[in-house]
Amino acid sequence: MKGSLLTMLVFLWSCQGNSDVIKIKGSDTEVNLAVELAESFHKQNPSIFVSISGGGSGLGIASLLNETADIANSSRSINAEEIGLFKKEGERIDSFIFAQDAIAFVVAENLSIDSISTTQLAVLLKGEQTDWSTIAKQKLPVNIYGRQSNSGTHDFVRKKLKIEFSNRAKEMNGNAQILEAIKADNSGIGYVGAGYVTHGGSKGIKVLKIYSGDGQSAVSPLDAKMIAAGKYFFQRPLFQYYQRASYHKIKPFIDFEKSAVGQKIIKTAGYYPVMKL
Fold it and tell me: Do 2-100+237-268 and 102-228 fold alike per CATH?
């Protein structure tokens, strides 16, 4: 996927002078999926190019505001401050939920734990529990691998658990970097989009099942049926924000994402469709 992504970006950036370029920036969670959609879309619409780059949800929304992006990929809802900035500029924006995602909490495959409660997670990520002795029965330090504060995933996890992350948490540049860190650290815990795990990233790691209360069944972020039923604690919509004035430009790509072909790509990529296939 990394090679495909790089090839796609180099090819598309070379076409930036073309007026028929849809520029998409933002969520690292969505970037690989966006590339797959763009590749298939371009085959059907060879006169329209789609430029993809990541950097985080906050960067995507900022790029939409300064008009260096036509679509902002965001794994969180736009916040009040950002809405205010668009209003100040007299810009009207809309959004489209094109897929669902589940956040997977991952540890090294030899850590003796298969599931974890949301309460235990909160204690770990806040830094109140600094070793695995009471949860995994192993005397190992807890090393936290997460995202920067401009990441929609970071914001989503923080709000769902109603916590502030420990200042010892290591801030990584993206999902792939978190997975590599966990594979190299027997005592680490991190969180990534489930699609990154299902696409070749599972070797050497373990995806934890999550439960949110005593007596409740633990649910895996890889269980499509439970996601469809809304039973996983860390599932979320994936947004695309755009300025209303440019909707005519991006409409062909949005329509493709809504199509049966687009939704099938979303499902195959390890995400969850929002339309019926």
Answer: yes
* Residues in the chain where the model's pLDDT stays below 70: 1-19, 200-201, 214, 276-277
Domain covering 2-100+237-268, topology: D-Maltodextrin-Binding Protein; domain 2 (3.40.190)
- Which SS3 state, helix, strand or coil, does residue 255 take? helix
pLDDT at residue 277, as a whole number: 52
Question: Tokens representing 175?
Answer: 């999902």
CA angle 106, 112, 117 (to 5 degrees): 60
CB 236 within 8 A of CB 27: no
Between CA 62 and CA 176 the distance in angstroms is: 23
Tell me the whole-structure pTM to 2 decimals.
0.81
CB-count exposure of residue 17 (10 Å: 0-12, 13-18, 19+): exposed
Q: Which helix (H) or strand (E) holds 151?
A: none
Other CB atoms within 10 A of residue 261 CB:
14
> What is the C-alpha end-to-end distance of the chain, expressed in Å?
25
Can you give the pLDDT at residue 3? Answer: 43
Q: Indicate the fold that domain 102-228 takes in CATH.
A: D-Maltodextrin-Binding Protein; domain 2 (3.40.190)
Rounded to whole angstroms, the Cα distance separating 46 from 255 reads: 16
Q: Where are the domains of the chain?
A: 2-100+237-268, 102-228
Count of Cβ atoms closer than 10 Å to residue 84 Cβ: 10
| Torsion angle, alpha carbons of 190, 161, 112, 223, to 10 | -80
Q: How far is residue 111's CA from residue 96's CA, in Å, rounded to a whole number?
A: 39
Question: CA-CA-CA-CA torsion for 107, 109, 110, 111, nearest 10 degrees?
Answer: 20
103 near 194, Cβ under 8 Å? Answer: yes
Cβ neighbours of residue 163 closer than 8 Å, sequence gap 6 or more:
122, 125, 126
Question: How many Å separate Cα 238 from the centre of its chain?
Answer: 8
